[in-house]
User: Fold Ion-translocating oxidoreductase complex subunit B from Pseudaeromonas sharmana.
Amino acid sequence: MMLLLSLLAVPLVAGAIGYALGLAALYLKVEANPVVEQITALLPNGQCGQCGFPGCGQAAQAIADGSASPACCPPGGQALAEKIAALLGVSLSAGSQRGPVVAAIDMSECDGCGRCFKKCPFDAIVGAPRQLHGVIADACTGCGLCTAVCPHGGISLYPDPQFAVPLLKPTLGGARHA
Assistant:
């Protein structure tokens, strides 16, 4: 009997603690700001850092507080900025939106120091020590951390060509229709 009681003691204590934690979660729950949750749901949640915040949750909090513009998310583009502005009931200022950017390394300035690929949190920069480095544009989020650490100023950000608007629309058969 004593052996059975000692075997059941651990699961019973664990169950009681679990039950107490469940009750605490129900009754001591802190309500979050619903506007922040709505903005977070709209953001792309890529945690790229292009907005100047470490993640989309922090950016959503700053937008809701008014310390960041609704147009602070470059990957979201103008459409996202308009949705967030409509949600908050504010207007967008003209020219406040910049598009998504990616990094590029000027090969004449790269000496292979390796600071850029050590700093990149997305592994978008490839290369070996004392060798030229390159940027994988599909993995680059344009956060700009690599530009700050390059001692030669050989890394720059430019508009992402994936989001560039084509000048002419392709048509079927190669003929242009007016």
Q: What stands out?
A: The mean pLDDT is 82. The chain is about 40% helix and 10% strand.
